[in-house]
Write a structure and sequence with these properties.
This protein has 21 helices and no strands. By secondary structure, the chain is mainly α. The protein folds into 2 domains: 215 residues, no CATH class; 226 residues. α6 packs antiparallel against α10.
Length: 538
């Protein structure tokens, strides 16, 4: 049992979260962002609701096959990223007032676990709608997703507490052992999948791979979570499997209490590190993570003022290599899909690759922030630099354009190695730089018009989602217009010069480049009109 004051604090935090969900609606801009956030959620969840109540329902057996892999993937992602530290994270205010208070160590641990479960409930509501087509009822989907996310959180907390009981070096070794074990399980799963390529659908291959004894016993504790979602009836299926999943989570929770680790010193260190990472993210332009101060690159030439600005952002990129490695890992997974699909028709590879390139471009444009978005707190210094605005804009967007173009070329190049058609690689090399200049020029111009700081994510903050959706729609409209202009110009040249693709692509490239270069004066004008005293977000 917890102290009554801790229950009161949890109730106040929940009340504050509800107030934060609707804050700012009284202002026109806040109301617009809130409505756009609701539209974003409706657009995202609408198809799942439609398919759930139509005849196009999912196969529950397919969910039972893939759900253990999803849970293992989430646990692995928690281990290799800094997200796992949040399992034992206390805010600075909680450390200031709760740690010296009349609360036992286990009471605070129970308070933390209960708070995590409250936070998981919102995410469970969202993902339960996505899994609704595989379930007989929304309650079963919510229960299964909630228990699955709770398992991931409890697993992370138990691993952190075990590591805290050991020396730091021993914990590092233990985490490496766990990662190697996870890697072995994934290798055991992907090996049979690659060997069976071309044999039936992906679901059939995954089901056959899990028939092996190793994966069967490895996934056995995770199957109740999938069976809870896919339970056809409340009694006995839902009660039986949800009870089994609850027992697994309960065992993890009892294990955490049994450890009785002195975690408070560790929690203070985690809190300080996470706060420092959030502050560093506002300066470096990447997601909060560990940065290294050892990365050095040689000075670049002056280039009219472009060189020093680009050098500074490139140094930030080198010192945030961990975030870039995470992105490269995602790219490697994206490249692995065409590799596994080689046994299928090559006609299917290129559509998948193009979809990956589009997804990667959208993802990177939001994640790689080595530009004005990372320098919002240094705008006063940028204003005082003896550099023309156009040169400053070129230096700011140079590094994101370089990183994004390189990853796009690598992805297409590996696919060309697998499926042929080297002309597509040449087109990617030609079109990727001007297209990315266009994209990041639009991104930075929009940011300078409506700047915001990097903040910690708050579940249910629809205004943040609304702002992202509105900016995404504006970018989509502008990029679509630019693409239609380039395509239309190339088509006209194609019909005028005869059936020759080279002049058409060349003219299209010229049009894309001119439109990309036009974004530099636009971003320069947005920078000149930026008033540090009025436009800097608080």
């Amino acid at each position: 049992m917890l102290h009554p004051a801790l229950y009161k604090l949890l109730a106040l935090k929940s009340r504050g979260m509800r107030r934060r969900m609707v804050r700012g609606i009284k202002t026109p801009k806040g109301a617009l962002f809130f409505i756009m956030g609701l539209v974003m959620f409706g657009t995202w969840l609408g198809p799942s609701v439609f398919f759930a109540f139509s005849e196009h329902t999912g196969d529950p057996s397919q969910l039972e096959t893939t759900m253990p892999m999803i849970i293992i993937g989430m646990c692995l992602l928690t281990l290799i990223s800094s997200a796992g530290e949040r399992a034992i994270y206390f805010s600075p205010g909680e450390i200031e007032f709760l740690f010296p208070g009349p609360f036992g160590r286990r009471e605070l641990l129970g308070y933390k676990v209960l708070g995590l479960l409250i936070g998981v409930s919102f995410s469970s509501f969202i993902f339960s709608v996505l899994f609704l087509r595989y379930s007989a009822s929304w309650f079963a989907a919510f229960a299964g997703v909630f228990l699955s996310l709770a398992f991931v959180q409890l697993f992370s907390m138990s691993l952190l507490l075990v590591g805290q009981m050991m020396a730091e070096r021993a914990y590092t070794r233990m985490r490496m052992i766990v990662l190697i074990a996870f890697g072995g399980v994934l290798a055991a799963a992907l090996g049979p999948l690659i060997a069976m390529r071309g044999m039936g659908t992906w679901g059939d291959r995954l089901a056959k791979a899990q028939d092996s004894p190793l994966l069967h016993y490895a996934f056995l504790p995770l199957r109740p979570f999938a069976k809870t979602i896919a339970a056809p009836q409340v009694f006995p299926d839902l009660l039986l499997w949800s009870g089994a999943a609850l027992a697994i989570n309960g065992a993890l929770f009892l294990f955490i209490l049994w450890l009785d680790a002195e975690y408070r010193e560790t929690a203070i260190g985690v809190s300080q590190r996470l706060y420092a990472r959030l502050q560093r993210a506002q300066r470096s332009g990447m997601a909060p993570t560990t940065a290294s101060a050892k990365g050095r690159i040689p000075q670049l030439p002056w280039w009219g003022g472009i060189g020093p600005v680009a050098w500074r952002q490139l140094t930030n990129a080198v010192r945030n290599a961990r975030s870039l490695m995470m992105i490269l890992l995602l790219v490697a997974l994206a490249i692995g899909i065409p590799t596994v699909a080689k046994g299928e028709s090559d006609v299917k590879i290129w559509p998948m690759t193009m979809a990956m390139v589009i997804w990667l471009t959208v993802f990177l444009s939001m994640m790689i922030r080595f530009d004005f978005r990372a320098d919002i707190e240094q705008m006063d210094w940028l204003k005082m630099m003896p550099v023309k605005p156009w040169a400053l804009v070129c230096g700011q967007i140079a590094v994101p354009v370089l990183i994004c173009s390189t990853l796009q070329i690598v992805l297409v190049g590996v696919t060309v190695k697998i499926a042929g058609r080297p002309e597509l690689l040449a087109l990617t090399v030609a079109f990727a730089p001007p297209f990315n200049i266009l994209l990041f020029g639009i991104e930075n111009a929009l940011f300078l018009f409506a700047p915001t700081k990097v903040v910690a994510f708050s579940p249910g903050d629809f205004q943040v989602f609304g702002r992202q959706l509105l900016f995404m729609l504006v970018k989509l409209v502008l990029v679509t217009i630019a693409g239609l202009v380039a395509f239309g110009g190339g088509a006209i040249v194609y019909f005028v010069t005869g059936p020759s693709m080279i002049p058409a692509f060349a003219f299209g490239w010229v049009l894309v480049t001119l439109q990309a270069l036009a974004m530099i004066p636009l971003a320069s004008w947005a920078f000149r009109r930026f008033d540090v005293s009025l436009d800097t977000p608080v």
